TrEMBL record:
GO biological process: Golgi organization; intra-Golgi vesicle-mediated transport; protein transport
Keyword annotations of the record: Coiled coil, Golgi apparatus, Membrane, Protein transport, Transport
UniProt-annotated location(s): Golgi apparatus membrane
Pfam families membership: COG2_N
GO cellular component: Golgi membrane; Golgi transport complex
Residues in coiled coil: 40-74
Protein known as: Conserved oligomeric Golgi complex subunit 2
Keyword Membrane: yes
Membrane-topology annotation of the record: Peripheral membrane protein
Amino acid sequence: MSFQLGPSDSDSESELPFPAPLAQDAFSITHADFSPHEFLASLRNRHQTLEDLRTELRTRSRDLESELVELVNRDYADFVGLGSSVKGGEARVEDLKVGLLGFRREVETVIKNVERTRVEVKKELAIKEGIRKEKVLVRNLLALAQRLDELSALLLLDGASTGPPGFLEDGESLTSTRRLRKLVAAYVYVVEFLLPKVPSQHPFVKAQQPRMTKIKDTLLIDLRSALREARQEKDGEKILELIKLFADLGAESVAVKALKGTKK
């Protein structure tokens, strides 16, 4: 605690030391739970009368008021400028709103254009896919027609008495195992590979059904003839191979009847 000496006086009381003025930060209220009673109690060691303390507090209050007025006067121009800058802000906000609405319409237009383009592209892709499928179908139909023509020629169903060049080797008969094996393989290829690739209700497929039936029936006739010859020759190996060819055509029952010497 610091003291200062008062001015010279004849009275003994004026010659006594008294406390220094309160510091300005002693009045700083930095906490919401500031208590005046606790503040006064903290001054008990100042050896100062209550009247002197009251006078000092009044003086300090006037000083604070003066500082506050000075602060307000100093920053008044800034406060006025802030108000002026805020004035007219509604128009700016409205302009911004109009701009945002315009931007939103532009975005919506872009979205619509993108969606329209997407639909058009999807449509074009569907058309392209349809064309691709048509091409595949045409190729499969051509392959089917070509194979049926070859089978008809090899089975002499086109009215010819001899097959195409290379149809038979020198001295080879129409009931040779080699020839029948090739014919059965060609027919199975048509039934199990080519036909599943085309719609069963396609007009061309329907139109070829009688032809395919005739091809199969002719194949079975040739197989029965070959089986009869093999039985006469007692060629067990050839008989087993011919039975397998019957099975490839799904005609096991026809082979059994042929082995029993009965007709279909």
